[in-house]
Amino acid sequence: MDLVLGQFADAKIASLSEQELGDYELLMEAQDRDIFSWLTGEAETPENFDTPVFRQIREFHVGGDKPGELAVGAERIPEASK
User: Fold this and answer.
1) Exposed/middle/buried for 23, CB within 10 Å: 0-12, 13-18, 19+?
2) What domains can you pick out in the chain, each with its CATH number?
3) Range list of H helices, the chain
4) 72 has which bridge partners?
5) Whole-prediction pTM value?
6) What is the dihedral of CA 27, 28, 33, 37, to 10 degrees?
7) pLDDT single digits (tens) 11-62
8) CB 51 within 8 A of CB 23
């Protein structure tokens, strides 16, 4: 998850509000497998993590064209290969 959260941070952290930074820090405390499950839709995102910044991260990494795939950098990684 460091790659996923890190790429988002590299691209967007400067534009995040104080509230969004707090939400991002909270998300960093969650288990990697949980975050991955929430991003891919494998599991429902708990209310306390379903924040505007989480939705930005999901939009940044998860394409709507192929559900169940996570885009990392320029490549798409099928969920089954995780």
Assistant:
1) buried
2) 2-81 (1.10.150)
3) 2-12, 18-28, 32-40, 52-61
4) 75
5) 0.73
6) 30
7) 999 999 999 999 999 999 999 999 999 988 899 999 999 999 999 998 888 7
8) yes
